[in-house]
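Below is one record:
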Amino acid sequence: MTKRLFFVVVLIGGIAASRPISAHHSSSSYDMEHPVNVKGVVKNMEWTNPHVFIFLDVKDESGAVEEWRVEGNSPNMLTRVGWRKEMINPGETLQVNGAPAKNGSKVMRLISLTLANGQKLDGQGFK
């Protein structure tokens, strides 16, 4: 009986260990309940895993320029909903809707964005 129990435990452990573990990146640092809109000029875009980052120069109310970091989903997920790396280039103006950082820093989680030509893109990567 002890050998069978040991075998079952090892078998279940082996099965559990062999399954892929999916990573989850929490949005807990973002205020998902109060999205904001910013309009800015693209400084840089990093089309990298695990998340795409867009860096925008945004003018505040006084005209001073602030750099915002916009965090999107993975390139794979964004590609599935029609994104291409070439769609966003430095110097272009974007309107971005996203969840701001709870700590007040100039960082947001991308919800959607509108290109200069008026094309709206889903930033979540799900359809």
